[in-house]
Design goal:
By secondary structure, this protein is mostly helical. It has one domain: Cytochrome Bc1 Complex, Chain D, domain 2 (Orthogonal Bundle), CATH 1.10.760. The protein has helices spanning 2-19, 24-41, 43-46, 61-68, 75-85, 99-115.
């Protein structure tokens, strides 16, 4: 009986923290999806955070911040807006990607920029 009690205690000790885990776990899953979407739709022009069409419009933190200052919104929302509407040579992905996919790829871009690509 004490073996069963010990086993149950171990299971609860391992599972309980996951049940009360912060939303960061969901972000990690979204980040995986965001990376997949980025690889499929964006990497041709923005591989490694660069920009093959306009070298000054990279996704590196310095260039991204300079560009995002033009927006009166949260940086993540500004990235989402850029993905949805496109601008200049960048096509619009509204209607091509779902809202959840746009959020996932914007989150991935923001996180990668902060990490230095």
């Amino acid at each position: 009986m004490s073996r069963i009690t010990g086993l149950l205690a171990l299971v609860f000790a391992l599972v309980l923290p996951l049940m009360s885990a912060p939303p960061g776990l969901a972000i990690d899953l979204s980040n995986d999806r965001g990376e997949q979407i980025f690889s499929s739709n964006c990497a041709a022009c923005h591989m490694g955070g660069g920009n093959v069409i306009r070298a000054s419009r990279t996704l590196k933190i310095r260039d991204l911040n300079a560009h995002l200052e033009e927006y009166q919104q949260d940086p993540l929302e500004a990235i989402e807006h850029q993905i949805e509407d496109g601008k200049n040579a960048m096509p619009s992905y509204a209607g091509k990607l779902s809202e959840a996919e746009i959020i996932a790829v914007a989150t991935f871009v923001e996180q990668q920029a902060e990490l230095g690509w």
